[in-house]
Specification:
- The protein is an alpha/beta fold.
- It folds into three domains: 70 residues, Orthogonal Bundle (Arc Repressor Mutant, subunit A), CATH 1.10.10; 135 residues, ATPase, nucleotide binding domain (Nucleotidyltransferase, domain 5, 2-Layer Sandwich); 169 residues, ATPase, nucleotide binding domain (Nucleotidyltransferase, domain 5, 2-Layer Sandwich), CATH 3.30.420.40.
- It has 13 helices and 15 strands.
- The protein is globular and about 70 Å long.
- The model has no long low-confidence stretch (mean pLDDT 91).
């Protein structure tokens, strides 16, 4: 793909801001060396970031006989922005500063089954009101709000949500929010929000071609090409969870036959446990979280039923990962989500032999499998980071230099 001047400028801004966040306090010259830009280009971008109040000068560093170097850090008094993680049973809201540190958090419960758009909208607004009041930030003083919603989001911002207990179709959630919130609204799904968080702060930092696999009730992939999120023609790229794994196999929640989600999502793992150990006390038929937690604890104790269930699940995961690596050729595959948090290490360990047997040698040799290293909610973090990216992109699009 051809990249315009604005594309290059935007990517350079992202790289400089990422390094300042990761390495503060840091001198301009050290930023330039780390991100591979000239000192002059880096100084120009830093000047922009200072003007935008995303970065601040916080002191000086001795330079071995020359003039002291000014040190940079994210501006603690800079603009604030919000990230929202909408899951099937909760709305999690966080307010961040330019270092992407969470200054305030709020969580609103959703109904287990029936969550009409108006109800979810009110829960978002309630969470936003809570965090802005706690942080003492007026709503119109925010840089923007990033919202992650489960399912697919059309390029025009209409949400077509496929959460198993919801029946939304073509809900204009971004427009509904924009009517109530006087700041820019960015809307996407948790796959891409998690991928942004990994690119900026996690196991994908410094990588160009990345797959971030979310493992929970559902399964999906966020993809980055050349360090940029890949959306596909209709913003639906990454439905790895609904690629076929077993012909005439199990049905997933959306009615797909034999797909990855039906075998390595939480309901699929529960089904596997039921098949290898009918009547197992580890199985809690109406509680996915309790079952996955029980499996993790039993696996640590060497329970044979847990071992059989996880080994069988890992075989399916290994084939699914091999397909993804053969097709996409990523540098790193990151597993995230609540199932990956509890069982990811055990699944990956047991999946490696199958993965190695089915992946093409060169593609497999160039791919790292990693677990999400972030100790905070990657979805709300990524959603907030999208706000920062959108702001810096808008600066580039307006021709600021």
């Amino acid at each position: 793909m051809k990249r315009t001047y604005q594309d290059i400028r935007r990517a350079n801004r992202f790289a400089v801001m990422r390094h300042v966040i990761a390495s503060a306090p840091v001198a301009r010259r050290d930023v330039a060396t780390a991100v591979g830009l000239s000192v002059a280009t880096t100084a120009d971008i830093v000047s922009e970031l200072l003007e935008l109040r995303l970065v601040a000068e916080i002191g000086q560093q001795a330079s071995g006989g020359g003039r002291p170097r000014n040190l940079l850090a994210p501006n603690p008094d800079g603009p604030r922005f919000i990230g929202v993680d909408i899951a099937e049973t909760y709305v999690h809201v966080e307010l961040f500063d330019p270092a992407l540190r969470a200054l305030a958090r709020a969580e609103e419960d959703l109904h287990p089954r029936d969550n009409p758009p108006g109800y979810v909208l009110e829960r978002i607004l309630s969470g936003v009101a809570t965090v802005t009041a706690e942080a003492g930030v007026p709503l119109d003083g925010l840089l923007g709000i990033g919202v992650s919603i489960p399912g697919q989001v059309r390029p025009d911002g209409r949400a077509s949500v496929f959460a198993s207990n919801w029946t939304w179709r073509d809900v204009p959630l971004r427009d509904l929010l924009a009517e109530r919130i006087p700041i820019p609204v960015h809307l996407d799904n948790p796959l891409r929000a998690s991928t942004v968080a990994e690119l900026w702060f996690g196991a994908a930092r410094g990588r160009e071609n990345v797959a971030v696999l979310t493992m929970g009730t559902g399964v999906g992939a966020g993809l980055a090409v050349g360090g940029t999120i890949y959306h596909g023609a209709t913003n639906t790229a990454g439905e790895w969870g609904h690629t076929n794994l077993v012909i005439d196999g199990r049905l997933c929640r959306r009615g797909c036959v034999g797909c990855v989600e039906a075998y390595v999502g939480a309901p699929g793992i529960m089904r596997q446990l039921e098949e290898v150990a009918p009547g197992s006390p580890l199985l809690h038929p109406d509680d996915q979280t309790a079952t996955i937690n029980a499996l993790a604890a039993a696996l640590a104790e060497g329970d044979p039923d847990a071992e059989r269930a996880i080994t069988a699940t890992a075989r399916y995961l290994g084939i699914a990962l091999a397909n993804l690596i053969n097709l996409f050729n990523p540098q790193v595959v990151v597993l995230t989500g609540w199932v990956a948090d509890r069982l990811g290490a055990q699944l990956v360990e047991r999946a490696r032999p199958t993965l190695a047997a089915h992946a093409l040698g060169e593609a497999w040799a160039g791919a790292e499998i990693a677990l999400c290293p972030l100790d905070r909610n990657p979805v709300s973090l990524g959603a907030a980071t999208v706000v920062m990216e959108g702001f810096l992109s808008e600066v580039a699009a307006n021709g600021r230099s």
